[in-house]
Design goal:
Blueprint: H1 2-23, H2 29-106, E1 115-124, E2 133-136, E3 149-151, E4 156-163, E5 168-172, E6 179-184, E7 189-195, E8 201-204, E9 217-220, E10 237-245, E11 254-259, E12 268-274
Antiparallel strand pairs: 1-2, 1-12, 2-5, 3-4, 3-12, 4-5, 6-7, 6-9, 7-8, 8-11, 9-10, 10-11
Length: about 280
């Protein structure tokens, strides 16, 4: 009972104070008391502000740092995405340019007339210094078979040694097991193209007395005897003679050939499929 009476009295006093405050907005005893109270509490407010400010500053610093890191990560992600798009665009442009060059090669005089071209792209590259094979994105479903010659717009790169319906493995001229019958058309001399040092080739089995010189053009020899058909059609460009060496103890010239094809950057290629294949 006493608690209820005290509570009712406090409510009445609060209502009275509110009434006086509203009726005297700029003056009066209550406002004076409020002013004295505010003045008395001001030092505590200043002290509380000084104590709280470093904490607010630290919080603001870490909050800003977190936002900056998040923004930086977002910008880095966007940069990587744009770089990927730009790289893909450059790769596509290069591939289109190579395909255009292949079409030009098909229309040129060195393209074998009894063959059709299956234009495709290289999808995997040698996975080590001793692996000289690439995989192309075309296979038996496109008419490609074991032994199918493969070229770029610049020249011969090798032949198919393994085939599946939609892909094929191409062994490059730079493989140690590769051998191509070839002809130096400038000098009218035949030989055998084999792997040389690095990315170079050698024209082997050329007698010492034959007149081969630097910058001579070397192409595939092709089939001489129809009973023994060659893998490669006649006249596909291979490279140019870089140097000719003579040894007193050797029976043949040492002829180094620089290939026309750029084996280190193969992209668009063409497989040569005979038109009359049954």
């Amino acid at each position: 009972m006493v608690r209820r009476s005290v509570l009712a009295a406090l409510v009445l006093v609060a209502l009275a104070l509110l009434t006086v405050s509203f009726r005297s907005p700029t003056s009066g005893a209550l406002h004076d008391v409020q002013g004295y109270g505010a003045t008395a509490l001001r030092p505590f407010q200043v002290a509380a502000e000084r104590v709280a400010r470093p904490f607010r500053d630290v919080y603001g610093y870490f909050d800003g740092l977190s936002k900056a890191k998040s923004e930086n990560a977002r910008l880095r992600r966007e940069v990587r995405e744009w770089q990927a798009v730009a790289s893909q665009s450059v790769a596509n442009e290069r591939q289109v340019a190579e395909l255009k060059r292949l079409l030009h090669f098909e229309e040129g005089p060195t393209f074998p007339q009894d063959y059709r071209s299956v234009n495709t792209t290289v999808i995997s590259f040698p996975n080590g210094p001793f692996a000289q094979e690439v995989t192309i994105e075309a296979g038996s479903s496109s008419g490609i078979r074991f032994g199918t010659p493969v070229v770029t717009a610049d020249g011969l790169i090798g032949h198919v040694t393994n085939v599946s319906p939609h892909t094929a493995t191409v062994t490059l001229l730079t493989d140690p097991t590769s051998a191509v019958t070839a002809r130096d058309v400038t000098a009218g001399v035949n030989g055998l193209i084999r792997h040389g040092q690095g990315s170079t080739l050698i024209l082997d089995q050329v007698p010492k007395q034959l007149p081969i010189a630097k910058n001579d053009i070397v192409v595939t020899l092709g089939t001489i005897d129809k009973h023994y058909p060659d893998l490669y059609p006649r006249g596909i460009p291979i490279g140019t003679v870089q140097s000719v060496g003579i040894s007193d103890t050797a029976s043949y010239l040492s002829v180094q050939v620089t290939p026309f094809a750029r084996f280190e950057s193969l992209d668009a290629v063409a497989a040569l499929v005979p038109k009359n294949r049954k």
